[in-house]
Design goal:
The protein contains two helices and five strands. By secondary structure, the protein is an alpha+beta fold.
């Protein structure tokens, strides 16, 4: 990319993600830095948690199972589907076997997201 001449703008964006394989849901906020290189070409950098990361829209991966079959939604969808405030996470009861819990979690998350979309 050559020499960077500086940040021209910073935009803050947040997204909700749901893994269609294991049912894991999460939310992430990004600082999208718009830059111009020495040749005058514009490019962007996505920053999350102080680290430069790939664009969440290119090929997101589930942190739980590493699947790339991930649904991207507007912010707040995962937290509202779980019935929790953003940043809080609800975990399945320990007595439910892990595989059954994953299926139940995915089914519940998708059902809640579908109901919210119909109500919008």
């Amino acid at each position: 990319m050559g020499e960077i001449t500086g940040v021209t703008a910073v935009v803050h964006e947040s997204y909700s993600f749901a893994c269609m394989r294991c049912g894991h849901g999460w939310e992430q906020s990004y600082e999208i830095e718009h830059h111009r290189d020495a040749g005058g070409h514009e490019f962007v950098r996505y920053v999350a948690g102080g680290r430069i990361v790939p664009s969440p829209l290119s090929r997101p991966a589930c942190a739980n199972c590493d699947s790339h079959v991930v649904r991207i939604m507007r912010p707040g969808r995962v937290a509202s589907a779980r019935g929790t405030a953003p940043g809080q996470h609800r975990t399945p009861p320990a007595e439910i076997p892990r595989q059954r819990s994953r299926r139940h979690h995915l089914s519940g998350l998708l059902h809640a997201l579908h109901l919210q979309r119909r109500a919008s």
